[in-house]
Specification:
The chain contains three helices and 17 strands. By secondary structure, the protein is mostly beta strands. Strands 1, 2, 3, 4, 5, 6, 7, 8, 9, 10, 11, 12 and 13 form a 13-stranded antiparallel beta sheet that branches. It has a four-stranded mixed beta sheet with strand order 14-17-15-16. Helix 2 packs across helix 3. It starts with a helix and ends with a strand.
Length: about 350
């Protein structure tokens, strides 16, 4: 399998496998610029009516501008304009017409490509690999290529071009801006030139390995996590204390004083802003009698809370008589749990 085929196969497998990749959500338009080195493979040179030799090239340089669009799911497409240039090192081989050390010459390439790419999220928030493929058109130019015996090859050749791309991007701290580094395998159909002074066609090959570093700016930028409002603590549930009274009485027992003291202490430690003190009575006696009795009981408890350090303006006193029994009973039935005051901390 050739390097080109391996690249394209790898790109296709990874792009289609959700177990290998998760999209970096770039959404909207972006632009990029990149530059680096271009390694032009040695290529066969076939001269019509003469024979075959080989061209060797020095390492050159390349530059690219891109304009693209991300779909927010990892996939993006882009238009790429590219330039590559390499000096010819030698023309060698058994062919007399092109044999010998080159005395000069340059291959330059202008290309326009349509690329489809896929950004991957591997769970590393500073490193995002990407892969892609592209097709387009390239203008390949041999300028003043001369052999040791003085023969010259010149001309332009426009050809179908294709490429595979593997790279990584690294966010650099500005929303939407990333540093990129990638490798492109770029090739065209065989360019064709003319041997100067003859009608002989010269067919060559064009296979490139390009390594670049660049910057990419996404105007939409990767989606940022939403800014969450500070969590507001839920209010503490109200706490209730029950103070019980003897039949037809409103005075406090020792046990009742202990309960009130506990409620007063809790009100200070729990940042309570209001204490609701509600008096109740059982159903023995008239409604009016029980209403007055429940009021005296609530007032007694409120006074004891004040003696235990609670501010009087924090206390709200209510009286409900026999209307809200803790244990429902028939009329004129004594029930100890209904002879109470409820202290609710708010």
């Amino acid at each position: 399998m050739t390097l080109r085929n391996a690249l394209l196969a790898t790109a296709a497998v990874v792009a289609m496998s959700p177990s290998l990749a998760f999209a970096q959500p770039i959404s909207g338009p972006y632009v990029g610029i990149a530059g680096g080195v271009n390694i032009l493979q040695d290529s066969d040179v076939t001269v019509q009516n003469v024979g075959r030799g080989e061209a060797e090239f020095d390492t050159g340089w390349a530059g690219f501008l891109t304009l693209g669009w991300g779909f927010g799911n990892g996939f993006r497409v882009e238009l790429e304009g590219g330039y590559r240039t390499n000096e010819l090192g030698a023309l060698t081989g058994p062919v007399t017409a092109v044999t010998g050390r080159a005395t000069g010459g340059t291959q330059t390439q202008w290309s326009g490509m349509l690329n489809a790419l896929y950004d991957m999220n591997l769970g590393i928030n500073w490193l995002y690999p990407y892969i892609g493929v592209g097709v387009g058109y390239a203008q390949v130019n041999w300028d003043d290529v001369r052999t040791a015996n003085g023969q010259r090859i010149d001309g332009n050749s426009g050809q179908f071009a294709y490429q595979g791309i593997v790279g990584v991007s690294v966010p650099v701290g500005v929303q939407g801006l990333s540093l990129t580094a990638d490798y492109r395998y770029f090739a065209t159909l065989d360019p064709e030139f003319t041997l100067a002074g003859t009608n002989n066609k010269v067919d060559t090959e064009n296979r490139n390995h390009t390594f670049t570093i660049g910057l990419r700016y996404a105007f939409g930028g990767p989606a940022l996590p939403p800014v969450l409002a500070p969590a507001v603590a839920a209010p503490a549930p109200a706490r209730t204390y029950l103070v019980f009274f003897d039949f037809a009485r409103a005075n406090l027992t020792d046990r009742a004083r202990g309960t009130i003291r506990e409620a007063a202490t809790a009100s200070r430690s729990q940042q309570v802003t209001r204490l609701e003190v509600s008096g109740h009575a059982d159903r023995v006696g008239s409604d009016a009698t029980n209403m007055a009795l429940s009021r005296r009981r609530a007032d007694t408890v409120a006074a004891e809370l004040v003696r235990n350090g609670v501010q009087r303006n924090q206390i709200v006193v209510n009286a409900f008589g026999e209307s809200r029994p803790l244990v429902p009973t028939a009329d004129n039935v004594r029930e100890a749990q209904n002879r109470r005051v409820e202290i609710v901390l708010r």
